[in-house]
Amino acid sequence: MNDSHAVVVGGGIGGLSAALALHRHGWRVTVLERAAELREVGAGLSLMANAVRALDALGLGPALRDGGHGEAPGGIRDRHGRWLSRVDAADMVRQLGTTALGVHRATLHRTLREALPASSVHTDATVEHVEPGPDRAEVRYRGTDGGHTLAADLVVGADGLRSRVRAQLWPRHPDPVYAGSTTWRAAIAFPDPVPAAITWGPGAEFGMVPIGAGQLYWYAAVNTPPGGHAPDELAAVRERFGDWHDPIPALLTATPPEVVLRHDIYHLAEPLPSYVRGRVALLGDAAHPMTPNLGQGAGQAIEDAVVLGAVCAGGAADVPGALAAYDAQRRPRSQSVARASFTAGRFGQQLRNPVALALRDIALRLTPGRATLRGMARYADWSPPAG
After folding, report:
1. Beta-bridge mates of residue 137
2. 290-316 per-position pLDDT tens digit
3. Please, which residues bridge with residue 353 across strands?
4. Distance between CA atoms of residues 127 and 357, nearest Å
5. What is the rounded distance in angstroms from the CA atom of residue 132 to the CA atom of residue 154?
6. What are phi and psi of 97, to 5 degrees?
7. CA distance 374 to 293
8. In the chain, where are the structural domains located?
9. Please, are residues 336 and 288 in contact by the beta-carbon 8 Å criterion?
10. Max CA distance (Å), the chain
11. pTM for the full predicted model
12. How high is the mean pLDDT of the chain?
């Protein structure tokens, strides 16, 4: 263990991944989480090959493969159940070296937390100010016992979509904007075999992903103005998707109303000019909040963490140089993925025009599955830095 100290603001998947990556390279890490309890609120995740490789680099791949579900062959269907595009699992492994992995968010969060020293995580800690350096950084936060100030060689802003660190250090940068869709999510008990698949309808999408242990994660998204809520969100999903193809009605029947989550989708329409200011680095949704249409949000955050750990492997001796390398490696890729994800949503879930829908569906049916996989590989074929 060297004497380098990093403060990570945010105890979500990105923050814990960053803490673990730095800890594995000998850093002393303090995680500050403003919630009273360290837990992940959410349903499931589909981790593409790049995310699985990043988790392997953190030493967590075997545990998550045991606790998750290697995705069954699936693809894209229309609302009547006709396949528009199929993905073969064997071809995916040949193309990408591994299959995707469906996992409950809580399983991933718990696995990350348990890999860190318990003393490194502080809950009920609200960060009020970050001083970025240049020689040392400081973090002022308020806990249950009053105010505190921590000196740090490195601060990682991993505090999510509405990042206070980003807002403080980039005060003139536009906030995330509404992407045009709202989404419902739930993780349920559903032991019957189901492929990992997406179904598209006009301005709507329904997805399903097995996540292991007899559980399944489903999500639904529609075009709608922001800020909407229903007295019974499950009833709202049934009204829109209840007559779509099997097994969608059965999934909704198996869903307890109280587990359904609803969130509007936001993204950072104007990318940041840098992820670094002084000795502070942004990571995950704090740096590049993106739409979920490529299933890459969590994967990009975990990639960020692995790269950050690798460039900082030498400790505090050259943090500015390490962060310059981090920004150079991560900003172009993550912003490219964010742009592609937004575009995928516009031509997938959000598409409504009947003529455009028909042309898109024909094009999908005529595209060979291996060509579709090559398109996926543009974003999923990533490997961690050596060492």
Report:
1. 152
2. 999 999 999 999 999 999 999 999 999
3. none
4. 47
5. 8
6. 85, -15
7. 17
8. 5-69+101-176+268-347
9. no
10. 63
11. 0.95
12. 93
